[in-house]
Design a protein that fits this description.
Elements: H1 2-14, H2 22-32, H3 35-45, H4 54-74, E1 80-81, E2 84-85, H5 89-109
Antiparallel strand pairs: 1-2
Length: 126
């Protein structure tokens, strides 16, 4: 769950002017997960997720994703899946900060003056 939620948030960060409200982000994520994960989210929501306010639904998924990440880290699972290794939170944070720094450096070099934001094309694979 953590990986899917973070991938969706990464895609949204790539296009900061996407204009999607939280309820649409929650609904997009919920519609893209497997049925067992939907059942888990529903159980945590105490019924249906969509009966919650957009803020509560978003926060619930955020908490569940973080708990999912922490639980798998605490169990000492370092499995290899699809050519990728699980890493600890500090290493992940350092890698993300380095990537963000590189993107900011590129933005400083390739400054473009524009009056209106350009539309984004987002292709999400959950």
């Amino acid at each position: 769950m953590y990986e899917a939620w973070e991938r969706l948030k990464d895609v949204l960060r790539l296009c900061p002017h996407h204009g999607l409200q939280k309820w649409m982000v929650v609904q997009t994520f919920y519609n893209g997960v497997t049925q067992p994960m939907r059942s888990m989210i529903g159980a945590a929501a105490g019924g249906t997720l969509m009966s919650k306010t957009e803020e509560k639904a978003y926060n619930l998924i955020e908490e569940m994703a973080l708990n999912n990440y922490q639980w798998s880290s605490e169990c000492g699972q370092s499995k290899r899946v699809g050519g990728k290794y699980d890493i600890d939170a500090l290493t992940l944070l350092i890698i993300k900060m380095d990537a963000m720094t590189q993107k900011i450096d590129k933005l400083n070099v390739n400054v473009v003056n524009s009056c209106a934001p350009s539309p984004c094309v987002i292709d999400v694979v959950l």
